Amino acid sequence: MRSASPKPSSTSAHINFRNFLRARNLDYEARTVIRREISAAGKSRAFINDTPVTLDVPPKDHVAADGRHSQHETLELGSRSFQLNLIDAYAGNQKLLEQYEAQWLAYTTASQEYQILVAESNALKQEADFVKFQLDELVKASFIEGEQESLESDLKIQEHAEEIKGKLIHVIKALGTSEYSVSTLLGDIRNQLNTISAYSASYQALHKRVESLKIELDDISKRSKVKTRM
Questions:
Q1: Average pLDDT estimate for 83-96
Q2: Is the confidence at residue 188, as pLDDT, over 60?
Q3: CA end-to-end distance (rounded Å), the chain
Q4: Close Cβ partners of 116 (under 8 Å, ≥ 6 residues apart)
Q5: Which of 35, 172, 183, 202 could connect to 1 by a Cys-Cys bridge, CB 3.0–4.6 Å?
Q6: 71 vs 206: CA distance, rounded Å
Q7: DSSP state, 58?
């Protein structure tokens, strides 16, 4: 819809618009409404002050008008935002509106920053709870000094149990169960030195050292057998 009314200060525009209406046998009014209707079928009709006219009658740029409004602008009259802006403009609230907008911007900014801080606080709280849980579990475990190394050693033994057992069986055979074992050979050496130990203190010392080795090897063989049964 378009509405037009002559400006009071423009005498030539006023006369031009009045003559335009008279030339078409249309009544002149102080406020003239020019509208155009388009039906759903696509047909178009034109009116001047509710009087039907042909589509080429409504004036265009050659008629001066105070204001022109499209159909979309008319629909904006029902908009709440448009109504509030109209009230603010009529009441002269421009300065107050600017203050409100500045305060609203400050509020929304602060609200966003607050939400970020809340999220960070929650994340830190969850992390603190997890660390506390781990600490409580360590306290309950009651670890003692050196226990970790012992547990790690036991784990390695369990992980390589078959390999260890095979090596110990080989050691046992080499020390005492085979025909030419270390224990058998060392026993023979001990006997040989024993027969000559009476001739010199040095031979006697060698005999004692071999005797100590024989005792140590027998103990190693015994402990190895025990380990294979574990």
A1: 79
A2: yes
A3: 103
A4: none
A5: 35
A6: 124
A7: S
Q: How far apart are CA 42 and CA 33, in angstroms?
A: 22
Give pLDDT tens digits for 45-81: 888 877 888 766 555 544 444 444 555 555 555 677 7
* Closest CA relative to residue 211, chosen from 229, 228, 194: 194
pTM of the model: 0.33
**How far are the Cα atoms of 164, 173, 194, 227 from residue 221, in angstroms, in the given order?**
15, 9, 23, 10
**Percent of the chain scoring above 70 in pLDDT:** 77
Instruction: Count Cα neighbours of 148 within 13 Å in the Cβ-side half-sphere.
Output: 3
For residue range 91-100, what is the model confidence (pLDDT) as tens digits? 788 888 889 8
Query: What is the three-class DSSP state of 65?
Result: coil
What is residue 57's predicted lDDT score, i.e. its pLDDT? 56
Please state whether 53 falls in left (phi above 0), alpha (psi between -120 and 50) or beta. Answer: beta
* Eight-class DSSP state of 34: E
Residue type, 2: R
Q: Please report, as a single letter, which amino acid is at residue 29.
A: E
Please name the amino acid found at residue 118.
V
Q: Which two tokens stand for residue 82?
A: 């448009």
- Contact at 8 Å (CB) between 4 and 32? yes
Nearest Cα residue to 77 out of 86, 88, 64 = 86
Q: Which of 36, 44, 51, 43 is nearest to 3 (CA)?
A: 36
